[in-house]
User: Which sequence fits this backbone?
């Protein structure tokens, strides 16, 4: 199972989630929304950001398209895209973003990553 994560650009840029540590730790521990991979061979193959609140939803699609292209060169693909907890909890355009991602991304979409506290 190959997993990618879409994270909030603003939260990443403001160092509120340095190094995407919460997502990676939760994945490695199989906690939060990553519990579904307990006992399974699953790997994170990429993490990209949404383009920020000032951007538009197409920026997220461009980031994902670039990731898909890079992975294709490596003979990899994404089976599941996790939309980060940072987006699920705090994004003012979450519904619009999720709608376009579901229409365009050829992978299973899971809302959320970890259940650790996120402070703004």
Assistant:
């Amino acid at each position: 199972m190959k997993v990618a994560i879409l994270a909030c650009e603003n939260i990443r840029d403001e160092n509120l989630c340095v190094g995407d540590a919460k997502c990676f730790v939760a994945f490695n521990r199989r906690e939060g929304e990553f519990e579904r991979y307990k006992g399974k061979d699953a790997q994170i193959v990429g993490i990209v950001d949404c383009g920020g609140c000032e951007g538009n939803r197409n920026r997220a699609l461009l980031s994902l398209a670039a990731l898909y292209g890079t992975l294709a060169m490596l003979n990899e693909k994404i089976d599941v895209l996790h939309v980060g907890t940072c987006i699920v909890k705090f994004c003012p355009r979450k519904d619009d973003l999720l709608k376009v991602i579901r229409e365009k991304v050829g992978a299973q979409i899971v809302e959320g990553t970890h259940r650790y506290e996120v402070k703004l």
Helices lie at 9-13, 21-29, 57-73, 85-90, 94-104. The chain has a mean pLDDT of 91. The chain is about 40% helix and 20% strand.
